[in-house]
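Lecture notes, continued. The same structure-token format from the folding unit now serves as the input rather than the output. Read the line below as a description of shape only.
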């Protein structure tokens, strides 16, 4: 049954119904309430193809701020019906609330992103800046993440060391449980690392690491303040989007945007790319590729920012 914990608000039956109705593609049932791995996987994958990972609120908005209030998130993702999503804490706070409202057992934990994700040293890690959910099904814990973008997990991953799972063909994903020598002074400290390889035979690359210690909404308020306001944060420096593409109930590729560059990938290969020269062109790509419809007020929000395209 839905949680009544004061720190963990839930959505109403009507709100859940509208969420299910918003998922794409609509060919598959979304509401068996079986509370099993199949239902969780279907929900995660359809969420990934419906709600983009995106940080547009930090660039295309009058306020350039991000709220983690679950009612604000619901309005942004579902109520406004303008194709919007959010960055990691928005997407996973929203999806975690949906799952909790459905009756799933959900614990939220923080993660450290590996520096190599942004082109840095693969031995380096930032502070806690990412959020994931852990869902317990019949005594087994699964890591569920709908907010990491193009290289994120595409299905619930059981907390099992070294088990390899298919991602979007031909890529794979796994969790490793180990001490990270480059950051831990205590050799007995171990964390889970989420790793991706682009195809069989290629190197595994760590995306982030996490523990099973529960984080509170107050922890994410602190994390969100830094990721959305620090000049050092990639989210304030750049425009980032990613949305998965599904065909016949299978994830086959992704749509991504990094600043002016938009790419469409299928099976690991770039099949189409667009370089936007002007704001009008980028707003058009957001609408045509990602289904995101910005208001006139939001479009004006980028004027004067370093990320504005002045062509």
């Amino acid at each position: 049954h839905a949680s009544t914990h004061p720190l963990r608000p839930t959505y109403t039956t009507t709100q859940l119904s509208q969420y299910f109705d918003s998922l794409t593609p609509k060919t598959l049932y979304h509401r068996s309430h079986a509370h099993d791995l199949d239902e969780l996987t279907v929900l995660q994958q359809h969420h990934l193809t419906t709600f983009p990972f995106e940080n547009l609120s930090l660039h295309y908005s009058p306020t350039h701020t991000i709220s983690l209030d679950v009612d604000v998130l619901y309005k942004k993702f579902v109520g406004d019906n303008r194709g919007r999503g959010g960055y990691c804490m928005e997407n996973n706070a929203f999806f975690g609330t949906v799952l909790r409202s459905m009756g799933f057992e959900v614990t939220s934990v923080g993660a450290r992103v590996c520096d190599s994700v942004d082109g840095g040293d693969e031995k380096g890690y930032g502070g806690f800046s990412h959020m994931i959910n852990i869902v317990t099904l019949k005594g087994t814990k699964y890591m569920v993440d709908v907010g990491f973008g193009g290289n994120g997990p595409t299905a619930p991953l059981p907390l099992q060391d070294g088990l390899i799972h298919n991602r979007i063909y031909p890529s794979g994903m796994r969790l490793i449980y180990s001490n990270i020598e480059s950051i831990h002074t205590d050799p007995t400290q171990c964390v889970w690392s989420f790793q991706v390889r682009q195809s069989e035979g290629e190197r595994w690359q760590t995306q982030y690491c996490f523990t099973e210690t529960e984080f509170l909404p107050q922890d994410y308020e602190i994390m969100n303040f830094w990721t959305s306001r620090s000049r050092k944060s990639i989210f304030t420096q750049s425009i980032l989007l990613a949305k998965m593409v599904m065909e016949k109930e299978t994830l086959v590729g992704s749509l991504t945007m990094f600043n002016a560059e938009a790419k469409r990938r299928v099976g690991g290969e770039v099949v189409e790319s667009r370089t936007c020269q002007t704001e009008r062109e980028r707003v058009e790509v957001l609408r045509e590729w990602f289904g995101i419809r910005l208001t006139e007020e939001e479009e004006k929000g980028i004027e004067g920012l370093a990320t504005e395209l002045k062509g």
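Point for the exam: The radius of gyration is 19 Å.
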